[in-house]
Specification:
Elements lengths: L1 H10 L6 H11 L6 H11 L19 H9 L12 E2 L14 E7 L13 E7 L5 E4 L3 E4 L5 H12 L12 E6 L2 E8 L5 E6 L5 H7 L11 E5 L9 E4 L9 E2 L6 E5 L5 E6 L5 E4 L8 H7 L11 E7 L5 E7 L5 H5 L8 E4 L3 H13 L12
Parallel strand pairs: 7-12, 13-17
Antiparallel strand pairs: 1-11, 2-3, 2-6, 4-5, 7-8, 9-10, 9-12, 13-14, 15-16, 15-17
């Protein structure tokens, strides 16, 4: 316990004068045991074998509303992304033609210049959508179809031919894609099948690339997804946060040539020290969410003899500063402790108050346990 306190004080940067340290202790909800009370039991205390009693005793001061809000906002940061570039998932929507697509059109045979009645009522023709988004049709010439779905192309061509100049009756037109234009995207990291994939236009997004690579590896998970754009070595990669370890909840458009790096998740953890049955560092895997009481239960619960009633959570802010808040964990305040979420990297310290110190003292010296129930603030 003494070793952890020493390391914690160094972690908190407590190389400061008495007055500065007093202000820091007030911020963390920690004060010293009043000298009068400590002196009363000092002779007996020196004869005890407990290495923890008397090393550190706190007066638990609950956080103010502003301090609580600051504490709850602290913790690991989530990278923001450019919301202007976020798009709805296109996968599953009707395909829209783009330049470079190779299509087959089934047109009325009468519109072809070499039409002969014995050749039948319809004829197929292949055409590639040009850079200008158009195909060349018999009699109509260049005809814009880029950005249209197949049914919209069929409707537009049939309407164009249905006129006294071409056909008196509305023709039946069929459009099918023979070859999609694709662009290459590399997918690396925590996916099932890393590699380079050709994505067609309706799947040219982060989710489309992940689907082509078989999805995020279930055993590795993902902490975030980075998009490295081509010819942008001096520009910071874009990042898509992963709110589930299986799939991102947001999509981002690609243009081709990008490298998608799926970074595997790092193991989350929290620590519990002090008056608990099992002091240590505990894994905190996604997507599990613990509150304060559940985290203490993971450590085997509190020491039954000391029956501590307060827990202090130490948490790092994004700027590296450590912030702390103290909460009740017993009696009527049990629900309050249950509402405090634990975040990755939190250190939960359950330290002696005057009441828990006195109960441990009686147990060590006289060999009996004093009940910790009640509503006293010690």
């Amino acid at each position: 316990m003494a070793l952890w306190i020493a390391s914690t004080e160094q972690w908190l940067g407590s190389q400061e004068g008495p007055q500065d340290r007093a202000r820091s202790c007030r911020r963390l909800g920690v004060n010293s045991l009043p000298l009068g009370r400590a002196a009363l039991f000092l002779p007996l205390l020196l004869g005890t074998e407990s290495g923890c009693i008397g090393n550190r005793i706190i007066h638990s001061v609950p956080p103010t509303p502003l301090e609580l809000a600051e504490f709850l906002a602290a913790g690991p940061s989530v990278e923001e992304i450019d919301t202007d570039k976020l798009v709805a998932v296109n996968i599953g929507k009707p395909y829209k033609l783009v330049s470079g697509d190779l299509i087959t059109l089934t047109l009325p045979a009468k519109v072809f210049s070499d039409y002969e009645p014995e050749t039948g009522d319809s004829r197929d023709m292949k055409s590639r959508v040009g850079k200008d988004g158009k195909v060349r049709l018999p009699q109509l010439g260049p005809f814009p179809i880029s950005g249209l779905t197949l049914s919209e192309v069929e409707e537009a061509i049939a309407s164009a031919y249905h006129s006294p100049e071409y056909l008196k009756e509305r023709p039946n037109v069929v459009c099918a894609v023979d070859e999609y234009r694709t662009v290459s995207v590399a997918v690396m990291g925590a996916v099932n099948t890393p590699g380079i994939y050709g994505l067609r236009s309706d799947r040219l997004s982060v989710l489309g690339a992940l689907m082509a690579a078989g999805g995020i590896h279930p055993d590795r998970g993902a902490s975030q997804i980075r998009i490295l754009r081509p010819a942008e070595d001096d520009i910071e990669p874009e990042a898509v946060p992963v709110r589930s370890t299986d799939i991102p909840l947001q999509d981002l458009l690609l243009g081709g040539g990008e490298t998608i790096v799926v970074e595997p998740r790092t193991d989350r953890q929290f620590s519990v020290v002090g008056l608990v049955k099992k002091v240590g560092i505990f894994p905190y895997p996604e997507p599990r969410q613990y509150n304060l009481m559940q985290a203490i239960a993971t450590a085997g619960g509190v020491d039954a003899t000391a029956a501590p009633r307060f827990a202090t959570i130490y948490r790092k802010k994004t700027n590296g500063e450590v912030i702390a808040a103290t909460f009740r964990i017993d009696g009527l305040a049990l629900q309050h402790g249950s509402n405090i979420p634990i975040k990755d990297g939190d250190v939960i310290a359950i330290e002696h108050t005057e009441g828990s110190w006195f109960r441990s003292f009686l147990s060590d010296v006289f060999g009996f346990r004093l009940s910790g129930s009640g509503t006293t603030s010690l």
